[in-house]
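> tool_call: predict_assembly(chains=two)
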Amino acid sequence: MNVEQEIWRWLEEVKDPEIPSVSVVDMGMVKSVYVTEVGRVQLDMIPTFVGCPALNLIEKEVKNTLQSKPGIKDVTVTFVMDIPWTSDRINEQGRQNLKKYGIAPPPKDYQEGDPWVAECPYCSSPKTVMENVFGPTACRSILYCTTCKNPFEAIKPV
Amino acid sequence: MNKMMIQTAKDAQGHADFKDALVSLLFQLADDNFIVGYRGSEWLGLAPHLEADVAFCSIAQDHTGHAALFYQLLEDLGQGKADDLAHLREAQAFKNAILVERPNGKGDYIVNPQYDWGYAVIRQYYFDLFEMVRLQALKQSSYEPLAQAAEKLSREKYYHVLHGQTWLKQMALTTDEAKQRLHKALQQVWQDLDELFDMGPLGEDLTKYGIIESRDLIRQRFISKAKEDLASVNMNWPGEPSRPKEKGREGEHTSDLDTALENISEVYRQDPAANW
């Protein structure tokens, strides 16, 4: 395994501070990893929602985690916007890990303006209703499952 | 004429007229979002029910985040630190439209807030609808970082507009009291609405350099969308929008902005060097 591949693997240890079952890699927030010279790493990351207050925390976590690894001396994180974050960037593992935390993953290939439905992360029933498009964080909505009678959250498709 | 494309802040430094126009627009974008975000945050704990509170605060957070992004673009262009731009300028340096600085109602957040929810949601809805159209007009911007930002932000803006439409419907299609309040809110918003489209003294340069599409096009798209919306909930078109007597885009403001800024920046101004 080369160093860059190893860094990607280490980055799986950095969890989203608001969803502790999902890593920043799962969320699709890491765009690229470069080793610029021995021990020096440059990371380009994509912010999920622009006003997300967790971004600074994530940056700090990424630095702390990587700098604790053998051979890594210096880490620079840049948030870039040349490609926008979309909810399709969440990988399959991320989708599974979201469900484990009781959060429905976003619908795939969502087109703006389409009605969106989410399966209940607890019982997989499609019979759910939107309670509030806005949830506890910018990226989540609150829904209700009419089958198992649980409220749950879902990642907004963007 | 071939459209000039400017890829980075560094490239913009070499084109003084282009940069001046760009900076003037970025202040409008940043200040509109910063102040409307503050007005939204003043509802924290006061909205009519919990879901409304969560939604309104979430949107206020987005507005503030969008403002932070525009202030960052200004910082990149050498205009000073983003936080300082937000918190250390005097009211006359702000370029927001008057509509967003209007208070939520009578009273004060701490002391007896007699806020008007009807006005607040409708004011915010028309700002967001305008912002959606303005972002659309920036997607092909000749300033690449701004075009990228517009692409990103409009995905979030969609949800803000959806929220506003829901309230518009709820107010228009339910009780007589709700309808009356909606009618009153529309009258109030319409007194300030036309100023949103102004782009300040360098407005013509902005279009000439392809930084944003023209005022007329933006206004036309907005009006047609707004007409369609009101018709869909059986509300009459309130007529031609007017403008306030102050020119917000040129730094003329009401005393409500002074009060708002004192509040927003009180802590930051105590120690601008503090590390947050």
